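User: Could you write out the 3D structure of this protein bound to GBH? I've included everything you need below.
Assistant: Certainly. Input first, then the structure.
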Amino acid sequence: MSGFPKSFLWGAATAAYQVEGSPLADGAGASIWHRFTHDPRLMIATGDTGDVACDHYNRMESDVELMKQLGLQAYRFSVSWSRVLPEGTGRVNEAGLDFYRRLVDRLLEAGIEPLATLYHWDLPAALDDRGGWLNRESAEWFAEYAGVMFRALDGKVKKWATLNEPWVVADGGYLNGVLAPGHRSIFECAIVSRNLMRAHGRAVQTYRECGAHEVGLVINIEPKYPASDSSEDLAATARADAYMNRQYFDPALLGTCPEELREIYGEAWEDWSAEDLALCCQPVDFVGINYYTRSVVRSSDTAWPLFAEHVVQEGAPHTETNWEVFPEAMTRTLLWFRERYGDLPVYIMENGAAFSDPATSDADGILDEDRCQYLAEHIAAVRDAIAAGVDIRGYMVWSLFDNLEWALGYAKRFGIVHVDYETLARTPKHSARLYGQIIASNGAELEHAA
Ligand code: GBH
């Protein structure tokens, strides 16, 4: 008894701009990430771009071979909207669409289930010129694009996710300016949050008109723990939780907005109309949860707009991105999800860690023991949530490859497969072997690993 259902789906995840490279090839339009990385005023941290990335666009066939060798049962990828619709709407670029048709065909031939995400942060630049997610029409643009993809690949792709992590899109792209398109406005953050969820709703509606399989959305969840039981810290923790963990799932699954948002957004807040809430709250077939870490929160007089700040846990294990390693919070999150939103099928769509590669390697590859431990502990946390009754159907490790870690560039490595950015050679790390054993034993191997 491994604790995982027989049909449990084990896979790995990537996103288009992070791995594909060749962003303008074969008639593709630019995305906001292409613009962002090519603007030195914006991509301040590293100057890295996705021009080559892992060159997956040109190496797709051998990459699928590698996935098969690693024993993956599923591959979660995202579609670059502007490859398929260079202007974002209207004309379809068949050559771009063809890349995804070939990818899905190769995956199916290899016995690997494709899981497609429509939006992993790379809005067509042409749509940004029309206001991007600030424009209420964006929901229609997204529905049009979604329809093109569903018609082209439905039947072959049986699990579709609309958005990946709307919180990151709104907070990183429109409030903090650290991600594309690099804006800094709380007013914009509020508008974009709503338009993203309206777009999700319109895509689900479009799916119901043309699809017979499953559609859902992917949200990043980071449980918030109060630094003390003072009423200030408890209120700050509730605000942080509302902003990150409930802001998107509440409208999508309950048709409501968390009360705390009113206080957080202040003047920038505008109540969502009943029509907008109804549009966002379309029945979904599954949800995707991305879990990396937890956060301990205390009240702060200066940390606008939440007036809540993250308290670093000195002495606790942290990854290279300075995220605390805290696996039991993953179990807690999954139980919280079921308690609040009901018994929906859940896929872990991302979980993983950046660690720098140790200098040591053996014939089996790079000895990334810290990543092995991270994965084993978190997969065990998933098993515990299943034991407690949460309907978890699959787990996708982030990431298959080392890749462009957005504004942090190539220095942060999340892959179970090492990528040499000079030669583009792929080398499975120890974590890839361990993961292969976990998959082959449907989780029983954890007893040895964890
Ligand atoms: C995901 O987002 C993305 O979907 C993926 O593209 C990306 O490569 C991957 O993660 C790795 O970054 O500073 O301790 O408060 C991750 C969402 C939200 C997780 C912010 C970490 C901050 C932790 N992230 N969160 S902390």
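The two ends are 16 Å apart (CA to CA).
User: Perfect, thank you.
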